[in-house]
Amino acid sequence: MIELQSSYNATMIVLSCMIAAIASYTGLSMALQYAAASRGRSRLFWLGCGAAAMGTGVWAVCFYEISAYRWTVGIDYDYSMVVLTLVVAIAAAALLLPSVSRDRLRTRELLASGGLAGVAAAFLPYAGLHAMRSSLHPRFDAGTFWLFATVVAAAFIVVLWIAHRFQQSRGPKRKVIAALLLGAAFTTSIHVGLASATWTLPGEADLFSWNGSSATLSFFLGFATLFVIGIALATIFIERFWKAQMRRQLERDMRIESLFRHSQDAVFSYTLDGKLLDANLAAFRLTGYEWETLRQLNLREIISPEYHHTVTVNFKSTVAGQSRNFDAALLHRSGRRLEVNNTNVPVLVEGQVVGVYTIVRDITERKQAEWQMNYMAHHDELTGLPNRRLFEQQLVKAIAEQQQDGQSAAVLFLDIDRFKLVNDSQGHDVGDLLLRSVADRLSDAVKNAGIVARLGGDEFSVLLTGGIAREEAQAIAARINRELDIPFSLRGKDVHITASIGIALFPEDGDSLISLMKNADTAMYSAKDNGKNTFNFYDLSMNDSLFERVQLENELRKALDRGEFFLVYQPQVELATGKVVGVEALIRWQHSSKGLVSPAEFIPLAEETGMIVPIGEWALRTACVLARRWSHTKVGPLRMSVNLSSRQFLSPDFAESVERVVRETGMPPELLDLEITESMTMDVNRSIETLNQLKTLGVSISIDDFGTGYSSLSYLKSFPVDRLKIDQSFVRQMQSDTNDRSIVATIISLAHNLNLHVVAEGVETASQSEFLAQQGCDEMQGYYISKPLKAFDVEEFILARAAM
Ligand code: C2E
Ligand code: MG
Ligand code: MG
Questions:
Q1: Which residues lie below 8 Å from residue 27, measured CB to CB, with a gap of 6+?
Q2: What is the percent of the chain with per-residue pLDDT over 90, rounded to a whole number?
Q3: For residue 413, what pLDDT is reported?
Q4: Phi, psi of 500 (to 5 degrees)
Q5: Measured between alpha carbons, how far is residue 792 from residues 635, 789, 795, 799 in Å?
Q6: Distance in angstroms (rounded) separating the CA atoms of residues 30 and 350
Q7: Which of 106, 217, 402, 659 could form a disulfide with 407 if both were Cys (CB 3.0 to 4.6 A apart)?
Q8: What's the mean pLDDT in 472-497?
Q9: Which of 418, 586, 647, 706 to mutate to test the pocket of ligand 1 (most atoms within 8 A of CB)?
């Protein structure tokens, strides 16, 4: 029996060691780099490739070692055993690689894979020798084999542990050292295994004089070597490519991470079932919560409840793969509400949605600006009420709804009577205060029955919905009239106003925005014509009166040019002597088709349109021309009273225009008396200024219709006026109404206390005249003396009276 030993080809041994190292390195590369970075099949693939490379290398080592012996006998191989050896080698590698590449290697795994790989490695040289077919017979002692296998297994456990430690450390050579260790472990075990075999030789052949490798095995070995080297080269190439790829990937990841961390918008990362995975700094800033708190919060708690549904729906769409953009509101930790815009994007990995990113932008300021703008676009700045635009929108909506439900609605148009007067006389700030107070009272009067809006200027409107009946609309309109009739206290002054209201009902008076608005407006004008401070329901005939009104307005504009105006004069008599001391000029309009139009009808219209200014100046000039003429005739110098309208009186250059007329007509100013009404003197300072200017011209001033206005008597003291004209309504009822009697008596004595003359208007009877005389009234005027007369007639009247 001959023991197999120490006679081998040294080159082959060196070559086999190199192949073992290259194969181990290649296998490790694949396992550590690619398999560790992959999952599922791709991990298996890389592990498989690694095991194949390493196993093939180890197998080649085994047969190189066998071939390295110098055999003297002819040797062939049993190729099924050769293949089995290859399988065992690959199996050993396959046992080792997953364990080396694992991050954490548990002792159980270390013992199992290291031990099994060791047994397989120990089995390799025996299998290799068994594959030989020759006259030599290897002899194995089972005891020795198992002893050997145990030692190799123990060695492999240690090697695996060390290799695993090396691959864990981050140094560049970790793989080389681990590969050398594994390669050395395989080569050594194969070498020792081969060396431990004993052989029996049948004849006297010289065992080691012949190189025993067969041609086929050489081919296999060559192929295996090429395979291992090829794979090693491929690995180096792939490794470079992979590294570059990894670097790029890493850079991209870092860029994305940087975008995520430092984005000015808050970014939240969710799992598919809505669990918060991560959030950036901006998210903490936005919500006011730290990460720890935010993580544990139920996110519904920080979403404003009205948006829960929206947020859920959009989240589901994103889980289904769609990006979504929507607005919502969050609740800051402090309880503050934040308006936000959200963008949901699906997180895709290899085509699969694995999560959701929500990018949240704080748009509170923008939203507030939008609301503000929207509010401003739909509300009146002064009163805060809805404006015309919003009112019309609401009306259109209401029409559609009421139409569907078959219910009725009502539109009320309200216009403050003589608002202009307040505005012009008291100043715009008081006018504004008044409008605000009117808005408040309107809202109080309407309550929840409808919407109150300001359409502009002194026009308000009310929309009553919810099946409102005619009677209810009427009750509300009456309530509004009543409320507004109570004087307003503005800046310490009582201001009294009234309003005219027009009502159009849906559907009978109109079923569209335009028709309802137009008809309510018409009804409002009709209420104004009916004496103001009242309400009127729309009816078809009103369109005619509106038309008439528009026509009258047009004709009024032309009347002055056409010379259709003329003046009549009503004498004023001194009560004590019965002498005519003056006349009041009263305007008349001789309309081409309508005949004589009363000033009560056209003066308000002329006021509204501003036509009163040229008409008033014409009246003043005409009266002055006549008075001046009279002063040179038998009639003699006579006081001429001329009525002024508020628009005239309040125009800035009024005093100058009077001065001009006086100068141009040559009228002695002391004969001119200007009649103003109490309402014109509401702006006390301004009135005093104008009155003083007029007084310096030398004209006198009377307060007309005294007692009907709301001016405070105390102001009379400060006004440079000469006369009070007691309104005819008191004079008319003096006899029947003791109240009126005492009012007249009081006015007379008050006026005298203030050194003012008193003129009683509308005196129609002798008893009225007597009573006034008893009370010491200075002058009177009225049908009892004479109706207003044309110039020629008044001259005759005066001359006749003088002759009496
Ligand atoms: P007024 O200034 O108070 O004029 C007195 C009004 O009473 C006149 O009405 C006159 O015809 C009427 N009248 C006089 N005596 C009696 C009487 O005994 N009984 C009755 N029932 N009425 C009497 P008239 O002319 O229709 O004028 C109405 C108002 O029109 C005037 O009231 C005045 O405010 C205004 N007006 C008249 N002419 C002018 C004018 O030239 N300019 C301006 N701005 N207003 C004028
Ligand atoms: Mg008058
Ligand atoms: Mg009067």
A1: 50, 51, 53, 54, 55, 57, 93, 97
A2: 43
A3: 96
A4: -110, 135
A5: 11, 8, 5, 11
A6: 22
A7: 402
A8: 90
A9: 586
pTM equals 0.48
- What are the backbone angles phi and psi of residue 742, rounded to the nearest 5°? -70, -30
Residue 36 confidence (pLDDT) = 64
What is the structure's pLDDT at 713? 60
In the prediction, which pLDDT does 209 show?
40
Domain ranges of the chain: 10-203+210-241, 263-368, 379-539, 555-803
pLDDT of residue 6 exceeding 70: no
Question: Residues 671-727: pLDDT tens digits?
Answer: 999 999 887 877 777 888 999 999 999 999 999 988 776 555 666 777 899 999 999
Q: Residue 443: is it exposed, middle or buried by C-beta count within 10 angstroms (0-12/13-18/19+)? A: middle
Helices (DSSP H) in 489-638: which residue ranges? 513-529, 542-562, 599-609, 612-631
Which is it for strands 639-643 and 672-677: parallel, antiparallel or unpaired?
parallel
Task: Tell me the fold of 555-803.
Answer: TIM Barrel (3.20.20)
Whole-number Cα distances in Å, 501 to 203, 475, 517, 801: 141, 12, 13, 50
Mean pLDDT of 50-65: 83
Q: CATH fold of 379-539, please? A: Alpha-Beta Plaits (3.30.70)
Ligand 3 centroid to 705 CA: how many Å? 4
**Angle at 228 (CA atoms; ends 223, 234), nearest 5 degrees:** 120
Q: Is the Cβ–Cβ distance between 684 and 718 less than 8 Å?
A: yes
Same topology between domain 263-368 and domain 555-803: no
Is the model more confident about 207 or about 48?
48
The set of protein residues with a Cβ atom below 6 angstroms from ligand 1 is: 570, 586-587, 598-600, 603, 616, 619, 643-645, 675, 704-705, 728, 761-764, 782-783, 788
489 CA to middle of ligand 2, Å?
A: 29
Sheet with 137-139, side-by-side order of all strands? 2-3, 198-200, 137-139
CA atoms in the 13 A half-sphere facing the CB of 475: 7
Residue 5 has a pLDDT of 46
| Nearest atom, ligand 1, residue 705 CA | 3
Question: What's the 586 CA to ligand 1 centre distance in angstroms?
Answer: 6
- Closest residue (by CA) to atom 4 of ligand 1? 586
Question: pLDDT confidence of 337, banded at 50, 70, 90?
Answer: very high
Dist. CA 697 → ligand 3 center (Å): 24
CA distance linking residue 489 with residue 491, whole number of Å? 7
**Residue 537 above 80 pLDDT?**
yes
User: Span 338-349, mean pLDDT?
Assistant: 94
DSSP string, 477-516: HHHHHHHHHSPEEETTEEE--EEEEEEEEETTT-SSHHHH
- Using DSSP, state whether 464 is helix, strand or coil: strand
Q: Say how far apart CA 421 and CA 439 lie, in whole Å.
A: 19
The tokens describing 265, both together, are 């918008």
**pLDDT, averaged across the chain:** 86
Q: Lowest mean pLDDT: which of 65-74, 223-232, 424-433?
A: 65-74
At 630 the pLDDT is 95
Please state the rounded mean pLDDT for residues 609-638: 94
Q: Is the pLDDT of residue 361 over 60?
A: yes
- For residue 307, the 8-state DSSP code is G
Question: Of the bound ligands, which one is closest to the alpha carbon of residue 727?
Answer: 3
CATH architecture label of 263-368: 2-Layer Sandwich (3.30)
- How far is ligand 2, taken at its centre, from the CA of residue 669, in Å? 18
Task: Name which residue leads in pLDDT, 452 or 135.
Answer: 452
Ligand 1 closest atom vs CA 568: 25
Taking CB atoms within 8 Å and a gap of at least 24, the contacts of 217-226 are 217/63, 217/67, 217/77, 217/82, 218/67, 220/63, 220/82, 221/60, 221/63, 221/64, 221/67, 224/56, 224/57, 224/59, 224/60, 225/19, 225/60
The residue behind tokens 């608002």 is 419
